[in-house]
Design goal:
The chain has two helices and five strands. It is of the alpha+beta class and 111 residues long.
């Protein structure tokens, strides 16, 4: 008998305290953040936690992942909608690799 392999899921760390509370305890975010964005954020992070590999991000319809350049070089962005983006980076120093969610943006940053 071969040993069963346990799928290794990605670890997700949310660096922004407010967004971490939104995800962990369903805390309400300020009124300028629409409810549907909070919902999409929660679903995106839950999906990331289930990924086995960073390439799985390309399988989720609508995310449209992009590599960032300039001051956000090394980050990737996925769409929450046409205006809002979730920016994250991959930490390859940990085993399994982990995702660090750094920033949720409404399109007003400079790349």
């Amino acid at each position: 008998l071969s040993p069963k392999t346990i799928p290794i899921m990605m670890k997700v760390t949310i660096t922004d305290r407010d967004w971490r509370e939104v995800y962990n305890i369903d805390w309400m975010y300020p009124p300028e953040v629409p409810d549907y964005i909070v919902d999409k954020f929660n679903r995106a992070v839950a999906f990331m936690e289930q990924m086995k590999d960073i390439r799985d991000i390309y399988a989720y319809p609508g995310f449209n992942p992009k590599m960032k350049h300039g001051k956000r070089a090394g980050h990737r962005a996925i769409n929450l909608n046409q205006q809002w983006r979730l920016l994250f980076c991959l930490d390859k120093t940990s085993i399994p690799h982990s995702i660090i969610v750094d920033y949720v943006d409404n399109g007003h940053y400079k790349p």
